[in-house]
Amino acid sequence: MTRDPETLSAFLDGELSPAETLEIEKALETDAELRAELESLMAADQAAQDDFADILNEPVPFELAAAIENAPLATDAPAANMPSKPSSLTWLTAIAACLALMIGGAGGYLAGSTNTTQLAAAPGWLEDIADYHRVYAGQERHLVEVPASEADHIETWLTKTVGAQVRIPDLSQHGLTFQGARLLVAAGKPVSQLMFKDAEGRVVALCLIQTDTPADGFTERSIDGFDMVSWGGQNANFVIVGDEGRNDLEAIAQTAAVEA
Q1: What whole-number distance in Å separates Cα of residue 226 and Cα of residue 241?
Q2: What is the DSSP code string of 143-162?
Q3: Residue 112 DSSP class
Q4: Does domain 119-259 fall into CATH 1.10.3730.10?
Q5: Which of 234, 235, 260 is closest to 178 using CA atoms?
Q6: How far does the chain reach from its first CA to its final CA, in angstroms?
Q7: CA–CA distance, 56 with 71 (Å, rounded to integer)
Q8: In three state form, how does the secondary structure of 27-71 look?
């Protein structure tokens, strides 16, 4: 398929249609060069996020904070009286809007710095996982992107791509057999998906997304017909997802939390 950087970027951001997303995912199964391009794009995106986080963590100069705090409010004026170029006040107002996201305090207090690194739970990622599970759990030949026979490669590849340690847990005590893995994109971030099957052929997936502030404890929920148990550990959030009504997902999650 055509390797359009803009299309790959839109794929990473979750902005493509379901059909376009599926087309790229199918191409990634067999096109090693395309996978390399995607991994390179994700690495560049992560580097940009890291650089931006560093900027946001820098203290705001006192002079700039004071100028923003004391700047008069903008008022409506006839179009004929508008300056042809942005005034210093216009720029200060724009800067103030940006700084509002990074400076804490009440009553106009604008000192210090704010830690605005990656979001703890990547809002919406579980909804994205439910959508993926609906598509892939019904697959047979194309259930996974990389088969279980390449377990070592799966762990190395997904760890490097996702940015957090990916380990394949032994879930055989729960009657689950590892089938292989996929790379997903949820909430604009890469996600590892390890696929397991039980004796009845039902699919259970273990997904991992990198985060700087993992969730506390285990949380059960149902989303669009699937049951989920999510938790955090080290620098990642995890979720076990299976068919609605399964009564063993919490036990599976407890085992995965120890081994994954």
Answers
A1: 7
A2: S-SEEGGGHHHHHHHHHHHH
A3: S
A4: no
A5: 260
A6: 35
A7: 22
A8: HHHHCHHHHHHHHHHHHHHHHHHHHHHHHHCCCCCHHHHHHHHHC
Distance, CA of 199 to CA of 97 (rounded, Å): 56
Residue among 57, 68, 10, 66 nearest 38 (CA) = 10
Which residue type, as a one-letter code, is found at position 152?
D
Q: pLDDT (tens digit, 9 = 90+) per residue, 162-185?
A: 999 999 999 999 999 999 999 999
Residue (of 172, 176, 169) closest to 198 by Cα position:
176
- In the chain, % helix, strand, coil (3-state, to 5) comes to 45, 20, 40
What pTM did the predictor assign? 0.56
Give the span between the Cα atoms of 21 and 65, in whole angstroms: 44
Question: pLDDT tens, 198-239?
Answer: 999 999 999 999 999 899 999 999 999 999 999 999 899 999
Would you tell me how many other CB atoms lie within 10 Å of the CB of residue 147? 14
Would you mind telling me the total number of residues written for the chain in this entry? Answer: 260
Q: What are the boundaries of each domain within the chain?
A: 58-99, 119-259
Find, among 107, 106, 118, the residue nearest to 56 by Cα: 118
